[in-house]
Amino acid sequence: MRNLLLSFAFVLAARAQDANFIELPYLQLGDQPHLSASESLVLLWHAPDLDASWSAELRTSKDAEWRAASKPSFQTAGVPDVGIAPHRIYRVTLTELAPGEDFRYRILKSGAPVFTATGKARKGAGQPYRLVLFGDCAQNTPEQRQIAYQASLAKPDFLFITGDIVYTFGRISEYRTNYFPIYNSNVASMENGAPLLRSIPFLAAPGNHDTALLNYSRYPDALAYFLYWDQPLNGPVAPVGMPNTAHTLIGNADAQPAFLQAARPRYPRMANFSFDYGNTHWTVLDSNPYMDWQNPALLQWVKEDLAQARNAQWRFVSFHHPGFNSSVSHFTDQWMRLLAPTFEQGKVDVVFSGHVHNYQRSFPLTFKPKKQDDGNWKGPKGEVAGEFVLDKKFENGATAKPKGIVYIVSGAGGAHLYNPEQQDNPQSWQPFTNKYIAQVNSMSVIDVDGRTFRMKQIDTRGEEVDRFEIKK
Predict the structure, then answer these.
(1) Rounded to whole angstroms, how far apart are CA atoms 401 and 406?
(2) Interior CA angle at 114 toward 112 and 120, to 5°?
(3) Is the per-residue pLDDT at 181 higher than 80?
(4) pLDDT tens track for 317-328
(5) Burial of 329 (0-12, 13-18, 19+ CB in 10 A)
(6) For residue 286, what pLDDT band results from cuts at 50, 70 and 90?
(7) Kind of pairing, strands 184-189 and 193-195?
(8) Half-sphere CA count of 160, side-chain side, radius 13 A
(9) Mean pLDDT calculated for residue range 67-80
(10) Neighbour order of strands in the sheet with 54-59
(11) How confident is the model at residue 218, as a pLDDT?
(12) What is the CA angle 365-367-368, rounded to 5?
């Protein structure tokens, strides 16, 4: 009876807390791509478009005094034509955080605390870290909630989404039903999800359902990725082949001043970026077809970004569309294979993608693209031919150093699965595929500790379906 009363009291307190917000507070890395002796994170929350006295405070230990964070700023978003009332997206920068340490923060309205949570600062170069990674997730399915709950049990330092963050068109309305309630649930359970967003930063690459389906022209509350996320802005300045503010994603920019004002300065530059975490450099790319990754300026940015990471122990790349995939679904979406030689030159260790709603792991491989018979690098559907060299001796970490890059498809984060019939039919896999799990949704749990990389693939029940290790 006492536990029931405590649970009921918790629910009532949570509802009172929620009444102050449209979306509860959540953490982002912000425009801080590099490690620092004094770390920072950006804290966001959504509230009605009404004047209110908001502030934020934090403390780095239970014995420390609460200290004021920076003054909140806000941008206003909303599309009344589709039922999205104007609302304010507040941002506060939390500074002077010790690398890897927990801290406590609270939001105050009119001087009274209305939300309190614990966060974790980014790990430094000498600190081991854990992340959870998956893609193709926020479809409001039971499996999405189960994966969110399993992610909370893994206790990651941050979470990475490999694109197709929110189904089906990346809309504000879909974030409100499919994303925030599950990843920022007040209650952690298989039925609800987990309070992840408030405690650890999420990072993400954009997928086709986020930015590439002419979403904005069809749904003016789409492209919420550029409104609700706050990630590094160190990507390439828009050359030919990259979307810009006048074309491609939202059409005529002059006709969309409200979106551009709310998305400034993130649109469109936040589609490509890089960041450091622990001893690892991450390069995050927009792999949607409007990007021309054969454009010399874009390719040069990737080369320079990887070259500047020479001091990183590990180099990871992530984008949505996998270049190497055995599923029948999306099999010909191979255009990102063209960057394989650049990744090899840049000493990339692992490439993470989504798009295909299952889990796949390649053998370590190198790939040399070759032109089609018509002289083009890509076939009519995006297919790319070339020469493979596979390291099949590596298997699950049998050798210390794989000869080539391991390519991961981790696109089973909650959306309905693709091609489960292929799991038990290895004859349908491509020769470069080592593991193929498509009969259960799953997530990647990755531990990086010095010269050791360990990865487990965990399903909705918390059971391990794959594991491998790389040592340097």
Answers:
(1) 11
(2) 115
(3) yes
(4) 999 999 999 999
(5) middle
(6) very high
(7) antiparallel
(8) 24
(9) 96
(10) 67-68, 54-59, 102-109, 112-120
(11) 83
(12) 160
- What mean pLDDT comes out for the span 274-285? 98
Burial 443-455 (b: 16+ CB within 10 A, else e): bbbbbbeeeebbb
The whole-chain average pLDDT of the chain stands at 92
Q: Count the alpha carbons within 13 Å of 322 in the hemisphere toward its beta carbon.
A: 32
Cα separation, 415 vs 89, in Å, equals: 27
- Residue 285 predicted with pLDDT over 80: yes
For the chain, how long is the longest CA-to-CA vector? 75
Structure tokens at 435: 């593991």
The string of pLDDT tens digits covering residues 361-383 is: 999 999 999 988 888 888 888 89
| φ and ψ of 32, to 5 deg | -135, 75
Distance, in Å, from the CA atom of 92 to the CA atom of 55, rounded to the nearest integer, reads: 8
Task: State how far the Cα of 57 lies from the Cα of 69, in Å rounded to an integer.
Answer: 5
335 pLDDT more than 80:
yes
Q: How big is the chain, counted in residues?
A: 472
Predicted pLDDT at 13: 42
Tokens of 457: 């693939």
CA nearest neighbour of 457 among 330, 314, 360: 360
Contact 361, 456 (CB under 8 A): no
Q: Are the C-beta atoms of residues 185 and 195 closer than 8 Å to each other? A: yes
| Average pLDDT value for residue range 208-231 | 91
Domains of the chain: 2-120 (2.60.40.380), 129-471 (3.60.21.10)
Peptide bond between residue 265 and the one before it cis (omega within 30 degrees of 0): yes
Return the SS3 of 180: helix
Q: In terms of Cα–Cα distance, which of 346, 216, 245, 235 is closest to 286?
A: 235
Distance CA 464, CA 456 (A): 7
**According to the model, what pLDDT value does residue 255 have?**
57
Residue 235 to residues 89, 231, 467, Cα–Cα distance (Å): 23, 10, 33
d(CA 392, CA 401): 12
Low-confidence winner among 212-221, 383-392, 420-429 (lowest mean pLDDT): 212-221
> Which positions ≥6 away from 13 have C-beta within 8 Å?
none
> Distance from first CA to last CA of the chain, Å, rounded?
55
Instruction: Give me 417's structure tokens.
Output: 């699965």
Report how far residue 293's alpha carbon sits from residue 289's, in angstroms, rounded to the nearest whole number. 9
Give, for 6, the enclosing helix (H) or strand (E).
helix 2-18
Task: Please state, in angstroms and rounded to a whole number, the distance separating the CA atoms of residues 155 and 215.
Answer: 34
